[in-house]
Predict the 3D structure of the following.
Amino acid sequence: MHSFFIAILAGLLAIVLTMIITMFVGKTVYDKLNALFVINTNIVMLILVVGLIDDRIDMYIDIALSYAILGFITTVILAKFIGGRR
């Protein structure tokens, strides 16, 4: 069962690395902002998968929720900042 979670972990890491590249080479600011939001979502899923591998999901859920709230607030602030410049 752990090999299944490790395969999911590898897939999520590949998506995060792809989105990091998209953040740096994206054509518009909105592409970069969307890549940041996808990275935040995937990191929350990565934290939960690590919790499943570690068999301490209760602790990792709290960490993932805290990170999700911070990621959402960051995305909203950046979107408001970018939208205000136009």
About this structure: Residues 56 and 63 are 11 Å apart (CA to CA). Residues 1-84 form one domain. The chain has three helices and no strands.
